[in-house]
Amino acid sequence: MSPKLKKADGRELKTENQEMTGSSMLIQALAREKVDVIFGYPGGAILPTYDEIYRTGIRHILARHEQGAIHAAEGYARVSGKPGVCVVTSGPGATNVVTGIADAMIDSLPMVVITGQVATSVIGTDAFQEADVVGVTMPITKHNFQVRDVEELPRIIKEAFHIATTGRPGPVLIDLPKDVSTASGFFNYDQDVDLPGYQPTVTPNKHQIKKLVEAVTKADKPVILAGAGVLHSGAAKELLDYVEQQKIPVSSTLLGLGAFPGNHELSLGMAGMHGTYTSNMALHETDLLISIGARFDDRVTGNLKHFAPRAKIAHIDIDPAEIGKNIETSIPVVGDAKEALRMLFEAKGTPCDCTQWKEQLNEWKQENPLWYKEEGNSLKPQRLIEMIYEETKGEAVVTTDVGQHQMWAAQYYKFDKPNCWVTSGGLGTMGFGFPSAIGAQFAEPDKQVVAVLGDAGFQMTAQEMSILQELNLPVKIILVNNASLGMVRQWQQLFYEERYSNSLFPIQPDFVKMAEAYNIKGWKIEDPNEMQGALKEALNYEGPVLMDCRVHKDENVYPMIAPGKGHHEMEGVKP
Amino acid sequence: MKRTIIATVNNTSGVMNRITGLFARRHFNIESITVGMTENPSVSRMTFVVNVDDQRGLDQVIKQLNKQVDVLKVRDITDDAIVARELALIKVVAAPQHRGEISALAEPFRASIVDVGRESVTLQVTGDQQKVEALIDLLKPYGIKELARTGITAFKRGTKKSVFESPKYSIIN
Ligand SMILES: Cc1ncc(C[n+]2csc(CCOP(=O)(O)OP(=O)(O)O)c2C)c(N)n1
């Protein structure tokens, strides 16, 4: 463990019911919530809080752009399961975190975002650095607050953490006007959360569980679709137990990777646009689809008209609004995935007899696996990811940006363990991969953290190399460098008759020098034969590393379901 | 299909914004929204009239509303026995010789003339939507200069329980 990553301690906790300022209350409350790291960036409206951070020594990581701070908080939340905390100033500070908040919202990450705000006396006057952050973030937060009175602050913080972490997790924003943060009041944190309008259903309805148990017994071709909800509820073990009891094959969403071991014989791999042939055909042929903590995103379902045409659909989700939103469901189960899986396991239903189904699935697996052509002297991105998997023995936390490299990572890194995969799924946010790796390293100081990035996405938040430099954080940056906006180039090739509008980089920065400017060790790799050795060296190196891997430029991600097509219409399947 | 939905919500700033924003971004088709305080000053009641394609669309509206932390309770009351009222102000072109006629028209609707100008009169009518529409139809031939409608506000008839009765999280229930 890097000494700089040790848990912060020795913070003085004042006693209950003392009089103190708003910003002092905030820091006290964060300590009560066992927040051990804040990611943020100071500015005028939040200065009183930063002064408090200085005085109390609570650990704060200074990003170089607020977007870096919020994605780091997301990476932390994704890997630790604890709320990521981000503190920024009003106006531009707050608007710079909007993308990350939207990202956390759509991927259901527990987050508490604190934004400074101009003083209450000037709110609404277009004051210096004023932005209507509550208005801006209303549609992209699970809930948000503006504190009007310092006496309300403890209650609001408590509610914010409660809302962010319970039910379907999500980001909660607290907008804190400067005068409220300097006003004094009594700090009373030992109060119960009382939110009559917010009562998530955790325990599923027994009757629905019974219906599902019966449906499994009757099914000939059942499939489980495991989503990130399994990971959020910490139900990976429960899923494994249930699957081994019932012998139901498991397909995974992009965000659900790792919820079920990728190397298990009942794992079918990822479903959806760039999923495996087996997973997608299983969804097409199944007669009972059990979705657990997945929300039927269009990247998973393909054209809804062709989605699971023969299946009875069971949908387990903690968010009732997800059930029936995109797909009509015959067995709706509202509740926590862990509870639901426990109940299913305890019901000890008769497993279906589906030998034939499994034979069929195995045949698809054998005959139509993921594939790529080895080509003489160029580095294949797929092979690169496989090597990362081999060298880390699947033990690393892998974060990615968005694009082709993301899909290759999802395909070729076999996620065997939960909470080792950090990617921007729902929003598809470029710039996410690198800072989220920093947050992930804080969540798991002893784990190897590998950031697999595109050359374009990396350039959106590359300035956060400062954090690596400052703290000697051992994050390994692997650039899958194809000198283009690869995924955009692929779509232009396939759907826009090769008109490569603004997607190719004729000139690129010297990434190795860029790394060196931040005192980070950098390599450039072109020769596939050097790759393995270099990777070993990088992974064993004690500090941060950047590897600029020049991969085959015209590589496309396959197989693929083209827009508007169904699961049975995959292209680029192994011939 | 047209549905009438009532919701009780926390009476805090921005709640109306939250709800209308939710409708807009989810592409729900709303016809009207009314809002006002209830007998409990910390709670407001909203009445929506929405136009949805099918049961699934309706379920989504209700579930998404329910997801809001500030929404205490949501209920579709379309098929219940309800009291539903709308207020409309209608300014009609009315030369002096037509005023008697207009006033006679208004009477069976219990509409009243609340303002008289040189060339127009303004009527006020309350009632369910059909009644308001029927009156507007009758007035159209005279020429409507201005029309303002509130949208309906409604609740269930005659029940004793308040809509924000015992919270369901109570252990005693
Ligand atoms: C912020 C943002 N802007 C634009 C896009 C659209 N987009 C998706 S993938 C992609 C190209 C990514 O290129 P690169 O980071 O080099 O990764 P590659 O696909 O080459 O692996 C773009 C521009 C996006 N996802 N996010």
TrEMBL record, chain A:
Residues 401-549 form the Thiamine pyrophosphate enzyme TPP-binding domain. It is an enzyme of class 2 (transferase). Pfam families: TPP_enzyme_C, TPP_enzyme_M, TPP_enzyme_N. One of its GO terms (molecular function) is flavin adenine dinucleotide binding. It catalyses: 2 pyruvate + H(+) = (2S)-2-acetolactate + CO2. Its EC number is 2.2.1.6. One of its GO terms (biological process) is isoleucine biosynthetic process. Binds 1 Mg(2+) ion per subunit. Binds 1 thiamine pyrophosphate per subunit. Residues 20-134 form the Thiamine pyrophosphate enzyme N-terminal TPP-binding domain. Residues 209-344 form the Thiamine pyrophosphate enzyme central domain. Pathway: Amino-acid biosynthesis; L-isoleucine biosynthesis; L-isoleucine from 2-oxobutanoate: step 1/4; Amino-acid biosynthesis; L-valine biosynthesis; L-valine from pyruvate: step 1/4. Keywords: Amino-acid biosynthesis, Branched-chain amino acid biosynthesis, FAD, Flavoprotein, Magnesium, Metal-binding, Thiamine pyrophosphate, Transferase. Its cofactor is Mg(2+); thiamine diphosphate. This is Acetolactate synthase. It comes from Alteribacillus bidgolensis.
UniProtKB/TrEMBL annotation, chain B:
The keyword Transferase applies. One of its GO terms (biological process) is L-valine biosynthetic process. Residues 4-79 form the ACT domain. Its EC number is 2.2.1.6. GO terms for molecular function: acetolactate synthase activity; acetolactate synthase regulator activity. The keyword Transferase applies. CDD domains: ACT_AHAS. GO terms for cellular component: cytosol. Belongs to the acetolactate synthase small subunit family. This is Acetolactate synthase small subunit.
